[in-house]
């Protein structure tokens, strides 16, 4: 009996010991604090990368922080002036709002604070590309002008553009009236490349047109880069078309579909191919109250009144008293359209840059050899083939 009690006592003590250990183990596990996770440190990323060289000055410029916020950010040029820019609403990204300069070094300065509360510097620098040449583009139609319904938009570059596709992608034309059109690259002229935008058909009167050429920073190839953006907004005027049938010996002016004038005229001498007025759609490009006209081939040097240029091969609509006896009855000129003083002045006063002059009835066609604006001598498919895209 005593032996049985002794065994039970040992078992009871053993169970108590196990319960004590279990309770102690539970107490240790329950009271221990959960280890705290460390908050992440701020990570700053730069666009372009810090230390980069040859950066395009028109490329996006930004600094972004992950796991933190930007306290202060400055991007400084070599003179210590700040580049314009702004933080986003949650202060995680600063973006430059102005283009940078060519061949310059820019330095970041600022502070970011991480989620861990620690400060991280915004620092580093990068350098922009140094062009071998900065090429400028010039638009032919200025802001606020009113032009005729055949007016092409021209951008004349003062240097050669090898990568025409890159340049063309930077160009845009928007219109108040839906207008189909396309850019076409013409042979280099005046020491540089040139590109025209032509509508498929004549412009609709009163169309408002905006040209935007984002050329700054565009790489043209051979180390050349765009010097500046250019833009213009202008208006298409009334629909004035000159109908010039050389065999009628008259020049008819149509305005908005109605004939407003019919002048006796003399065109180029038909028996001399060099003196034929070229057939095709000419475009008024400039006009002069007085214009000196010289030809070494035909030996004349005269000053003519009310001269409206319709091509760069020497063709004008102008007054010429010397041919007054032929005006309305025969063609005797050196290729120009001759009118009386009174009629030439009347037409001169109505002519706008971009007005079409449709010459018909001669065997020699207007072509690229005749100078600047021969856009309308090509079919629409031929014109679209001049695009670089």
UniProtKB/TrEMBL annotation:
**What metabolic or biological pathway is this protein involved in?**
Cell wall biogenesis; peptidoglycan biosynthesis
Looking at the UniProt record for this protein, which Gene Ontology cellular component terms does it annotate, in alphabetical order?
extracellular region
User: Active site annotated at which positions?
Assistant: 318 (proton donor/acceptor), 336 (nucleophile)
Name all L,D-TPase catalytic domain ranges.
240-360
- List the keywords (alphabetical): Acyltransferase, Cell shape, Cell wall biogenesis/degradation, Peptidoglycan synthesis, Signal, Transferase
What GO MF annotations does this protein's record show?
A: acyltransferase activity; peptidoglycan L,D-transpeptidase activity
Q: Output this protein's name.
A: L,D-transpeptidase
Organism of origin:
Pseudonocardia bannensis
């Amino acid at each position: 009996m005593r032996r049985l009690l002794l065994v039970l006592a040992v078992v009871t003590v053993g169970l108590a010991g196990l319960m004590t250990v279990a309770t102690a183990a539970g107490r240790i596990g329950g009271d221990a604090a959960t280890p705290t996770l460390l908050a992440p440190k701020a990570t700053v990323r730069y666009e372009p990368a810090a230390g980069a060289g040859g950066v395009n000055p028109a490329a996006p410029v930004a600094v972004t922080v992950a796991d933190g916020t930007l306290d202060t950010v400055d991007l400084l040029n070599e003179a210590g002036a700040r580049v314009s820019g702004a933080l986003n609403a949650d202060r995680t990204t600063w973006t430059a709002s102005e283009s940078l300069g060519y061949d310059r070094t820019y330095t970041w300065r600022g502070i970011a604070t991480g989620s861990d509360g620690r400060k991280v510097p915004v620092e580093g620098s990068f350098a922009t590309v140094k062009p071998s040449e900065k090429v400028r583009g010039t638009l032919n139609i200025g802001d606020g002008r009113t032009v005729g319904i055949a007016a092409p938009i021209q951008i004349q570059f003062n240097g050669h553009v090898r990568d025409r596709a890159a340049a063309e992608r930077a160009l845009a034309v928007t219109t108040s009236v839906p207008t189909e059109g396309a850019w076409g690259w013409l042979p280099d002229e005046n020491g540089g490349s040139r590109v025209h935008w032509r509508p498929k058909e004549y412009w609709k009167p009163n169309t408002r047109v905006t040209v935007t050429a984002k050329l700054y920073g565009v790489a043209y190839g051979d180390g050349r880069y765009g010097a500046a953006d250019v833009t213009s907004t202008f208006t298409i005027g009334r629909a004035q078309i000159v109908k010039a049938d050389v065999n009628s010996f008259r020049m008819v002016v149509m305005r908005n579909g109605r004939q407003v004038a019919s002048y006796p005229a003399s065109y180029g001498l038909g028996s001399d191919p060099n003196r034929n007025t070229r057939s095709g759609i000419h475009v008024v490009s400039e006009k002069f109250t007085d214009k000196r006209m010289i030809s070494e081939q035909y030996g004349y040097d005269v000053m003519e009144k009310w001269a409206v240029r319709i091509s760069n091969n020497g063709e004008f609509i102008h007054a010429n008293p010397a041919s007054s006896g032929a005006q309305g009855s025969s063609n005797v000129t050196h290729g120009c359209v001759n009118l009386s003083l009174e009629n030439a002045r009347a037409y001169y006063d109505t002519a706008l840059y971009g007005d079409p002059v449709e010459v018909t009835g001669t065997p020699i066609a207007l072509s690229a050899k005749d100078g600047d604006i021969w856009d309308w001598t090509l079919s629409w498919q031929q014109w679209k083939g001049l695009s670089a895209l």
